[in-house]
Write a structure and sequence with these properties.
This protein has 133 residues and is mainly α. The protein has a domain of 77 residues. It is built from five helices and no strands. It is flat, with a radius of gyration of 21 Å. The N and C termini lie far apart (52 Å).
């Protein structure tokens, strides 16, 4: 099965799961139904991106084999597994791994961003509830 078909299946699977969930919740309001559909699409896109990342890793391993003449299995073993978006971003930029202080700062910034998003979502939920009443 090619990469294109795996990507299509990844998206289709998550969207079908969302459609099934919608079928099981006929009492859901418009907002909840839209949320379920959007989450299904986002999960599908996330799965599709993962499939693409796997394909890119395989292509890199094949290129390394061609360049260095080593077996593909050994080249694939040298390709690091993605463990987090910040580490992938560092690798893509060619940065060296960050020290503990930098990682702690990133974690603090990420927590602040998460809290801001939660606060914004809470404010929107409160606004939606107020409008419905």
């Amino acid at each position: 099965m090619g990469a294109r078909e795996r990507v299509h299946r990844a998206i289709e699977s998550a969207v079908n799961d969302a459609d099934t969930t919608l079928g099981e919740t006929p009492h859901a309001g418009d907002h909840e139904r839209l949320t379920i559909l959007v989450e299904g699409w986002f999960r599908g896109l996330g799965d599709a991106l993962e499939e693409l990342a796997i394909e890119v890793d395989l292509l890199r391993a094949a290129r390394l084999e061609d360049e260095e003449g080593e077996p593909a299995a050994a080249a694939a073993a040298r390709v690091p597994e993605p463990s987090g978006s910040h580490e992938r971003a560092d690798r893509d930029r060619g940065d060296e791994p960050a020290d503990e202080a930098a990682l702690a700062e990133r974690a603090r910034a990420a927590r602040e961003e998460t809290e801001a998003v939660r606060a914004e979502a809470g404010a929107q939920t409160t606004d939606d509830t107020t409008e419905e009443e």
